[in-house]
Amino acid sequence: MRSRSAVAIGMGLMAHPAAAQDIATSAGLPHASTDLLSIVLSAHWVVQAVMLVLALAAFVALTIMVQKIAELTVAFRSLRRSAQKLSEASDLTTALRAMAAQRDPATQMVRVAHEELQALVDFPAEPAYGHAAQQRTRLAIDRIEASALARLRTGSGLLASIGATAPFVGLFGTVFGIMNAFLAIAETKTTSLAVVAPGIAEALFATAIGLLAAIPAVLIYNALLRRIAAFRRGLADAAAQIERLLSRDLDRRSAARLAKTV
Q: Alpha-carbon dihedral of residues 124, 135, 228, 94, nearest 10 degrees?
């Protein structure tokens, strides 16, 4: 009978939180606030440190997102402008003149290809020299492409680290918060919700912040990889157009030299 009465009282207190708070206050138990800011401020300093680290990680992820959106927007705009000028050009000299004011990777590729073409002025118009110039141009283009992609990938490793470690950092805060709740039970020698609830609340809040930091970081990382892959395809297309113009100029050079010898 006594146990049934205790169960009935407990159910009544759960149905009426205000009555439970009054009883806890009269018994000298700590008052558990339901405000998130109060939960953070009243949490253990270790859990507070975990929350701060996770909040900084989420801020860093959002900062990288804003930076990469601006950077990729400028890169794609320049690439589209260069691709249009390359498609309209009939030779490397015309393309270089049209793109002289630009500083994007495609313009750098045009410049190195034109330099290789100019370096062949003192050489005979033989296929071997042309093939060597094309190979050197290909190597220079690969270096420019790798450098441009490396700049765009800056920060992606940090996003991957945040997405992979933030849930575990939040889990550490959860474990510590639950452990702190059990220590509070042992200290007060009572299992009242007024004693257990604060520790469990701060523990779950640490997990929530961990997920809040990890989920956007993973989404931003995947979106960044997709955009970089699209930029790489566009840059490869521009490189192919440049090599086509170089090959055409080399053929014209060979044909002009052959016409002089006839």
A: 10
pLDDT tens for each residue of 200-259: 777 788 888 889 889 999 999 999 999 999 999 999 999 999 999 988 888 887 777 766
Assigned token pair, 109? 């590729």
What residues contact residue 166 under an 8 Å CB cut-off, 6+ apart? 54, 57, 58, 210, 211, 213, 214, 217
pTM (two decimals):
0.75
- Using CA atoms, how far apart are residues 147 and 74, in angstroms rounded to an integer? 16
Cα separation, 204 vs 211, whole angstroms: 11
Angle between helices 193-261 and 45-88 (to 10 degrees): 20
**DSSP states of the chain:** -HHHHHHHHHHHHHH-HHHHHHHHHHTTPPPPP--HHHHHHHS-HHHHHHHHHHHHHHHHHHHHHHHHHHHHHHHHHHHHHHHHHHHH-SSHHHHHHHTTT--SHHHHHHHHHHHHHHTTTTS---HHHHHHHHHHHHHHHHHHHHHHHHHHHTTHHHHHHHHHHHHHHHHHHHHHHHHHHHHHHHHHT---HHHHHHHHHHHHHHHHHHHHHHHHHHHHHHHHHHHHHHHHHHHHHHHHHHHHHHHHHHHHHHHHHHHHH-
